[in-house]
Design goal:
Residues 1-20 are annotated as: Disordered. Keywords: Cell cycle, Cell division, Membrane, Transmembrane, Transmembrane helix. By secondary structure, the chain is of the alpha+beta class. The protein has a domain at 109-181: Sporulation related repeat (Alpha-Beta Plaits, 2-Layer Sandwich), CATH 3.30.70.1070. The protein has five helices and four strands. It has helices at 29-49, 67-73, 87-92, 119-132, 159-171; strands at residues 109-116, 137-143, 146-156, 178-181. Strand 2 (137-143) and strand 3 form a beta hairpin.
């Protein structure tokens, strides 16, 4: 088949509209009748139960059981059993001594929050740290690749203290601070 010389298919024409007289109704009469019957039944149900909650409870049902039998069915509550354990009395007056080994304290820690070529950038970082409530220092180092201005906090005796300050900085949107051993 030659697709290049093929004729185009004829254009489709929109379907013709039917006249309004010949159109069927959207909902038939029996569906409307069923809906009306259901609504009427629901309204009747609501009317019949509307006053039921205000009525008092009916009289209790009396049975022909003798009083002697009722008294036999009710058993008294037994006395509370005696404690078999003495630990509440013993532990109340005791003191617990726990031997906790001391942690080894390593070298002091230093936290660096930035390293900048420009001193103004380092001072800006130091001001942001001061707004959080921590004190930092700017250390200038001259190395083989130029001058660097480092913003550092510390020294810290334990890493836990440094972590606590790092979490304060992260809550203040200063991220990327690193904790190192003091050199």
């Amino acid at each position: 088949m030659d697709y290049a010389n093929r004729k185009r298919p004829p254009k489709r024409t929109p379907p013709k509209k039917q006249s309004k007289k010949a159109a069927k109704p959207a909902v038939s009469w029996w569906v409307v009748l069923l809906a009306v019957a259901l609504v009427a039944g629901f309204v009747w149900f609501l009317v019949t139960i509307s006053g039921k909650s205000n009525q008092t409870d009916p009289a209790p049902v009396v049975t022909d059981v003798p009083e002697k039998q009722l008294q036999q069915e009710i058993k008294p509550i037994p006395d509370m059993p005696e404690e078999r354990y003495q630990y509440p009395d013993v532990l109340e007056n005791q003191e617990v001594i726990v031997d906790v080994p001391e942690r080894e304290i390593g070298p002091p820690k230093l936290m660096q929050c930035g390293s900048f070529r420009n001193l103004s950038d380092a001072e800006q970082m130091r001001a942001m740290i001061a707004m959080i409530g921590l004190e930092s220092l700017i250390r200038t180092t001259d190395g083989g690749n130029g001058v660097w201005h480092r913003v550092v906090l510390g020294p810290y005796v334990t890493k836990r203290e440094a972590e606590r300050d790092r979490h304060k900085l992260e809550r203040g949107n200063i991220h990327g601070c690193q904790i190192w051993n003091w050199n």
